[in-house]
Design a protein that fits this description.
Helix content of chain B: over 70%
Number of strands of chain B: 0
Largest interface: A-B, 27 and 21 residues
Order of helices and strands of chain B: HHHHHHHHHH
CATH class of chain B: Mainly Alpha
Largest sheet of chain A: 6 strands, mixed
Radius of gyration of chain B: 22 Å
Shape of chain B: globular
CATH superfamily of the largest domain in chain A: P-loop containing nucleotide triphosphate hydrolases
Number of domains of chain B: 1
Radius of gyration of chain A: 18 Å
Structural class of chain A: alpha/beta
Oligomer: heterodimer
Shape of chain A: globular
CATH architecture of the largest domain in chain A: 3-Layer(aba) Sandwich
Number of helices of chain B: 10
Strand content of chain B: under 5%
Strand order of the largest sheet of chain A: 6-7-8-3-9-10
Mean pLDDT of chain B: 88
Number of strands of chain A: 10
Chain lengths: ~260, ~260
């Protein structure tokens, strides 16, 4: 197994009480697979991404990547969030170059720009390389954010609800872009999402978490492939049944909302 | 089109100043106010001409002290802002002291400083400018840094970037628009600082001294001329800051 998450628990402490957000959570991801993590809001999904990225340490248990436990951030990880957090004083292409400035300072500016332009071309924003983020639409910003998370060729891509704030059609466009990127760039992907259709469309496996404290309730292999680029297949009988099955697994406690 | 915009940018303010002067002149003329009550624009021109060398000499003295003081205020302000932006403990520790210090009317600090550093006029003046002008900068920088969205840090931290890299790649440029907003306020405050020192503790230098001698000689047009000179210098520095803002934080402007 490539990413191995073993019995991790995590809690946030404030003055008078500890809040346990993850409890004895384990699952693993094979190399170059795409795994989605779904679960009710507040079940510790974002915490999980921070732990995998090495931004904080689990309170109990450990996370192994290729057999080595992670205890600090690694250069081989890319991240993108719901908020695209682009730097407004940089052009699109310079925004994408940002990780390279940290990870590969030996690259010349020309090489960095070449790599960034290559990705921009893939997501269809080549003509916007000199635009400022304030001149881009929400979907375009998210495309740029995806490019930035992949520019340093990370082995693992962590996406924390990247399409959560987009309208339905823009979102479908982004799904296809992400699929294309996955084919050409080769990375292992962990996607946090609230959208079950998104999970089915994109991933090889869907991990469902319980309510807080989050732990794995069920892990479901999407045993059919949506191979064409068409989102229509999401409305096939097979896909609909799967959606219904996944939906049943998610427990919402209405009292807490 | 661009040419038309440029013309408009020059013409509109020039016209408004001209109208203001006409209105002022008419007001004085209609009320029949004598010179010692209210000088009119037509008196001020001759006053400038009469003391033109003094205006250049003293104006320069006031200007360089203000600018030097402002530069130090920026350094002190940014330094304190960085400390308070990054450490919550130091923010809690320093804020009451700074707010208290800022609340003291600077006119009352002037004699204290003048006594502490007797005879060191340049330093006295520059000190007062720093005291009066650093606070807005400190507040803007500390707020800018402490309200940085955590995702910005996560993007770089997940790649193993250092705190310093996050500071100069993200935090610093991101606070620039706030910084320039504060610098505009500080620029106008700085002139107040210089003139407080020059007028309350006269040491025979700067436009404040010229104002004082106008007062002693009951030369009202001269006093008004000094006020105008101060205003012109204030506008000059303000637009200088505006140009710097365009260069370094122009990205924040939306058309």
């Amino acid at each position: 197994m490539y990413i191995n998450i073993k019995d991790i628990s995590h809690k946030y402490s404030n003055e008078d009480e500890d809040l346990l957000v993850l409890k004895d959570l384990s699952f693993s991801v094979e190399k170059d697979k795409f795994v989605s993590i779904v679960g009710p809001s507040g079940c510790g999904k974002s915490t999980l991404t921070k732990l995998i990225a090495g931004l904080s340490m689990p309170y109990k248990g450990k996370i192994l990547i290729s057999g080595t436990p992670i205890n600090s951030p690694r250069k081989s990880i890319g991240m993108a969030f719901q908020n695209p957090v682009l730097l407004e004083w940089r052009t699109t292409v310079d925004n994408i170059c940002l990780p390279l400035e940290i990870v590969s300072p030996q690259m010349t500016r020309k090489q960095k720009i070449e790599r960034a332009t290559e990705l921009l071309e893939m997501v269809g924003l080549k003509d916007f390389s000199q635009s400022r983020p304030s001149q881009l639409s929400g979907g375009m910003k998210q495309r740029v954010s995806l490019c930035r998370s992949l520019v340093h060729r990370p082995e693992i891509l962590i996406l924390d609800e990247p399409f959560g704030a987009l309208d339905a059609f823009t979102r479908e466009g982004l799904w296809r872009t992400l699929k294309d990127l996955k084919t050409s760039e080769n990375f292992t992907c962990i996607l946090i999402t609230h959208d079950l259709r998104e999970a089915i469309y994109l991933s090889d496996e869907v991990v469902i978490l319980t309510d807080r404290p989050g732990t794995v309730k069920k892990s479901v292999k999407t045993n059919f492939q949506i191979n064409s680029n068409s989102v229509d297949e999401l409305y096939s009988k097979e896909a609909t049944e799967m959606l219904a099955f996944l939906r049943k697994q998610i427990e919402l406690s209405h009292t807490k909302l | 089109m661009i040419k038309r915009e440029l013309l408009q940018q020059i013409f509109v303010p020039a016209f408004s100043i001209f109208t203001f002067c006409i209105f002022w002149e008419l007001l004085v003329w209609a009320n029949g106010w004598p010179d010692y009550k209210m000088a009119s624009p037509s008196d001020i021109g001759p006053a400038f001409w009469k003391f033109k060398t003094l205006f250049i000499y003293y104006g320069w003295e006031t200007l360089w002290r203000t600018v030097v003081g402002l530069v130090f205020a920026v350094i002190v302000g940014i330094g304190l802002g960085i400390i308070m932006g990054f450490s919550k403990i130091l923010r809690d520790a320093l804020f009451p002291i700074l707010v208290g210090f800022n609340a003291i009317p600077k006119a009352t600090v002037v004699p204290v400083i003048a006594l502490m550093f007797v005879g060191m006029h340049d330093m006295n003046t520059i000190l007062i400018v720093i005291f009066i002008a650093f606070f807005p900068i400190t507040v803007s920088i500390s707020v800018g840094l402490s309200t940085l969205e955590p995702e910005y840090e996560d993007i770089l931290l997940s790649l193993g970037a250092s705190k310093l890299q996050i500071f100069y790649k993200i935090a610093l440029p991101k606070t620039l628009p706030e910084f320039f907003g504060a610098l505009k306020v500080s620029t106008t405050l700085a002139f107040i600082g210089t003139n407080l020192m020059e007028i309350i503790e006269p040491h025979g230098k700067g436009l404040g001294h010229l104002f004082d001698s106008g007062k002693i000689n009951a030369d009202y047009p001269l006093m008004f001329a000094v006020l105008i000179a101060l205003a012109v210098m204030g506008i000059f520095l303000f637009y200088l800051v505006l140009i710097l803002e365009r260069i370094f934080a122009g990205w924040a402007e939306r058309s």
